[in-house]
Amino acid sequence: MIPCRFLNAVLFTIDEDITLLVSSKGKATIQTKKVQECREQNLQHDKQKIRLINPANPWWYQLGLTTREGKITADLQHKFKQIYKYAEIVESLIKPMKFDGTVHIADMGAGKGYLTFALHELLTQRLNLDVDIKGVEIRPDLVLKINEIIKADNLKGLEFVESSIEAYHPEKLDVLIALHACNTATDDAIASGIKAGAELIVCAPCCHKQIRQEMERSGKVDVITRYGIFLERQAVMITDTIRALILEYFGYKTQVMEFIEMEHTPKNVLLVGRKTKAYVDKDGITRQIDDLKKKYGIERHYLETVLPLIG
Ligand SMILES: C[S@@+](CC[C@H](N)C(=O)[O-])C[C@H]1O[C@@H](n2cnc3c(N)ncnc32)[C@H](O)[C@@H]1O
Questions:
Q1: Of 35, 181, 234, 296, which cross-links 109 as Cys (Cβ 3.0–4.6 Å)?
Q2: Does residue 165's CB lie within 6 angstroms of at least one atom of ligand 1?
Q3: Domains observed in the chain
Q4: Distance between CA atoms of 9 and 292, rounded to whole angstroms?
Q5: CB atoms < 10 A from the CB of 251, how many?
Q6: pTM of the entire structure?
Q7: Which of 138, 186, 207, when mutated, tests ligand 1's pocket best, judged by the most ligand atoms within 8 Å of its CB?
Q8: Mutate to test the pocket of ligand 1, among 77, 144, 182 (most ligand atoms within 8 A of CB)
Q9: Which residue, 181, 156, 155, is CA-closest to 168?
Q10: Helix (H, G, I), strand (E, B) or coil at 161
Q11: Which tens digit of pLDDT belongs to each residue from 194-244?
C-alpha cells in the first residue's frame, strides 16, 4: 500500500527497476527497465533467524550428537528428532509465559544432556532469556564429563548436578522437564515439580513397569489385557492417566499428547501440566483414580506414595 501523497514509486530488484507513476489525474502506469549493471543481493539488513538447534555449535560434537563437521551422526538421527520436537513444544509453551528475571529449569534424568543443551541453546540464543538450567543426573561419570563441556564452551546458566531426582530439591523452579526418565523416575520428577511449585511441567515418560507389575500380580486380567502387548499398552495408558489426574489434582491444567511420530520412538507420549488457580474438584479426581485402580487391581500408583493426595 502506497500512501496517497506519493505520485512515484520505484522498486529496485537485482535485474530490473519497476516504476509506478501516478498522474495528477490519478491515472497509474507501471514501467519496467532491465538493469545493465551486475547487482548483488544484499541480505545484511535481513534479520537473521536463529535456529532452534544449530548442530554446528561445538557442544553437539563434544556431546557426541554430531560429527566434527556438524552432521548428526547416523545412529542418533532419531534422538535428534526427539529433542528437536521436544524443544519445539517447550518453546511454544514458554514463549507466552512471563518470568520475573532468571528462568529456573530442571531437566530430570538428563542423561547425556542432549535435551538440556538444546533447551539452553533455545532459551538463551533464540528467546534471549536469562536462565538457570540444571541437568539432574545420577551417574557421576556423565555429570563430570558434561560439566567439563559446559566449562570449555563457557555456557552460562547451565550446570549438571549429580543427584537422584528424589533427593534434588530446588529452591526455585519455573519449569520441570523430563525425557524418558526410567519407570518411576518420571513420578519422582513430577512430584518434585509439583512440590517446588513449577509453573510448567513437561514429561515424556519411559517404561511403565510399576503399574504393569501390579496389574499382572492382581490377576485381574480382562479380555484385553490377557494379550501381552495390550497389557503393556494398557499399563502405559493407566500409568499416564493417573499421572495426568494427579497433576490436575494439584492444580495443573494437563494435556496428554504425542510429541513425535512413533517411528522415532514408541515412547512418544507427552504430559504437559500448566499451573492454574482454577477450582479443582479434588474429591471427583480422587474417585476417578480409585475407580481406575480398582478396575485393574492396582493397589497404589507410585506417584501417590511420593505425593499423597490430601484433603
Ligand atoms: C533413558 S535416559 C534419558 C536421558 C535423557 N533425558 C534423554 O532423553 O536423552 C534416563 C536417564 O535418567 C537417569 N536416571 C534414572 N533414574 C534416575 C533417578 N532416580 N535420578 C536421577 N537420574 C536418574 C539415568 O541414569 C539415565 O541417564
A1: 181
A2: yes
A3: 1-35 (no CATH), 58-208+256-280 (3.40.50.150)
A4: 70
A5: 17
A6: 0.85
A7: 138
A8: 182
A9: 181
A10: strand
A11: 999 999 999 999 987 899 899 888 887 777 778 888 888 999 999 999 999
